[in-house]
Amino acid sequence: MKTQHIISWILQLVIIAVLIPSAYMKLTGAPDSVSIFTQLGMEPYGRYIIGFLEASACLLLVTPNSAAHGSLLTICIMLGAALAHLTKIGFNSSSCFSCLVILIISAIVTYLRRMQIKSIARMLN
Amino acid sequence: MAASVDLHKISRFANIAIPLLAVIFFFGGHFIHFYIHFLTVVFIILTVINIFYLHIQKKHTILRNFGILGQARYMLESIGPEMRQYLFASDTEERPFNRVERSEIYRKSKGIDSASSFGSQMDFDNSEVKIRHSMYPVDKQDIKPFSLTFGEERGVKETYTITKPYLISAMSYGALGKNAIQALARGARLAGIPMNTGEGGIPKYHMEEGGELVFQIGTAKFGVRNDDSSLNQEKLIKLCTDPSIKMIEIKLSQGAKPGKGGLLPKEKITEEISKLRGVPQGEDVISPAHHIECTSKQTTVAFIKHVQDTVDIPVGIKLCMGKTSEFRDMVKEMKNQQVYPDFIAIDGAEGGTGAAPKAFMDGYGMPLYASLFAANQILTEQGVRDKLKLLASGKLINSSKQFVALALGADAIYNARGFMLSLGCIQAMLCGNNTCPVGITTHDPALQKGLIVEQKAQRIANYVKGLEYDFYEMLAASGIRDAKDLNIEQLYIPNDTALADQITTLLSTTK
């Protein structure tokens, strides 16, 4: 139980390390973010919404009793990003790779913290 | 049942619709606008969760058969008790205390007039014991002020007199948190009534408030024990040098779990508990089902004598009635040995703040009115009723129930849950979980924060004041000048009550 706890905390910090710069770039309007969201046709409000969601996920991930909620939110964001890469942006950028890695890590965190959300806990025995 | 909604059909539809919607939204997001992918993501997640519910987990039948819609059941069920209490339960249908009874206590505690209008909400014409008034009520100033002296029959050195017919029943530090104990003890002092310490060992927090206490000796004899659960005389003598200890009560059994002992798990034995209760840390402590000294009527009576010889204050017993024949035999043995406890407290067959197994809470012991009548009747028939005082406890939270108990032979009233209600109890029924939402039966500092001792102590005092006011009003209405003259003639007892049944059986077997 204790090792699971430590592993989960390390993974949460990894997710946060990726999400914070990403949220910062979106909210401050870095040229890279602006060009991506222009491609998606969501400039500027979509960029603000996603940036805000990423920042919220970070906050949830550092709150001990809400880590599962944070990782679930991260999964949703990353799924959206994956859809964007799949349909509009293409697979060639490095952000595509990091998006998939974070998706998997968030899934692991959600699994490790599944007792925090009963409907998630009931997915497995 | 034919007209009912076919939940299985609806859930099958949902289980197909969810992945289908995910696909539809995907195309919407792709061809119409990327914003629609917000919905795509949600429905992909729902689809994955649903696959797990339907095909992977094996523990929950409802989820395996109905999928994600089955979740609604869990959600609704989890908020059920609150919904029922807040919205749907009628004012008279809750147990153990309905809203009408509870709000009477709340009003008394806050000093608000508790008069009600437009008739009784009780099932007035049915199966409830009622009090007969007199055509000739007496003036309140003609009523003799209540006074009861414990230990006068035996001539103990330090008799104890109460001037109100109320005692706060056994609640220990452990079952209740620190704030609740302090508020109760302070309130008892303000109201001028004694408080029973419960079997929680040295009553440190009770004593801090400087009120008058009845020290309870449980079967494990916490606070005054040897390691084999037998009585340690020196410890008892030392404890009784404290001027706040006015009486000793030997608990033979209690209503919540009569005939059953308990176990204090080692996790609960903190350094403080270990010190107060006189038990070692790091191992479970067993509360035996009976006092180790008491294995028969002879040894039980001898043990009462032993405690009476040890201290100079009144010593009584508390028991929940099981077999009336056993009680009669014990009373005969008292006559035989010429040893009488200074009081006998009769406990009803349920209740208690701690956790008791459901079978014992619900299934064991005689209800209070019937057992109180039986005790009084047996003591009278054996000619020893004037050798001791009789106390009653068990759900006696309001004036009329207390008056019935007094008429059935009790000299004074023990009451615990009434005082908990006046502390702010909302009957959440979580006493054994350490999660009491109003900070009474919990040691969690975050939950105890809301219980302000000064405030609640005053509520206790107000409650007692309200009860006492009713008590004299009711005596006046019954045409009785001295509470000692109360008897069963004051009661109207319908045939289909447990009490009426007991009266018939007891009177027919003794004649």
Tell me what you see in this structure.
The complex is a heterodimer of chains A (125) and B (511). Helix content of chain A is 81%, strand content 0%. Chain A has helices at residues 2-28, 31-40, 45-62, 67-89, 94-112, 118-121. Chain A is elongated. Chain A has 125 residues and is mostly helical. Chain A is built from six helices and no strands. Chain A has one domain (2-121). The model of chain A has no long low-confidence stretch (mean pLDDT 92). With 511 residues, chain B is of the alpha/beta class. Helix content of chain B is 43%, strand content 10%. In chain B, the strands form four sheets. An eight-stranded parallel beta sheet of chain B has the order 4-13-12-11-10-7-6-5. Chain B has a two-stranded antiparallel ribbon with strand order 1-14. Chain B has a two-stranded antiparallel ribbon with strand order 2-3. Chain B has two domains: 7-88, no CATH class; 130-510, Aldolase class I (TIM Barrel). The mean pLDDT of chain B is 90. Chain A binds chain B through residues 40-42, 46, 72, 75-76, 79-80, 83-84, 87-88, 118-120, 122-125, and chain B through 26, 29-30, 33-35, 37-38, 40-42, 44-45, 49, 52-53, 56-60, 63, 71, 74.
SSE topology:
The complex is a heterodimer of chains A (125) and B (511).
Chain A: H1 2-28, H2 31-40, H3 45-62, H4 67-89, H5 94-112, H6 118-121
Helix pairs in contact in A: 1-3, 1-5, 3-4, 4-5
Chain B: H1 7-31, H2 37-56, H3 61-66, H4 71-88, H5 99-110, E1 130-131, E2 148-150, E3 160-162, E4 166-168, H6 178-191, E5 195-196, H7 204-208, E6 213-217, H8 233-240, E7 245-251, E8 262-264, H9 271-277, E9 285-287, H10 297-310, E10 315-320, H11 324-337, E11 343-347, H12 358-363, H13 368-381, E12 389-393, H14 399-407, E13 412-415, H15 417-422, H16 445-448, H17 453-477, E14 491-492, H18 498-510
Parallel strand pairs in B: 4-13, 5-6, 6-7, 7-10, 10-11, 11-12, 12-13
Antiparallel strand pairs in B: 1-14, 2-3, 8-9
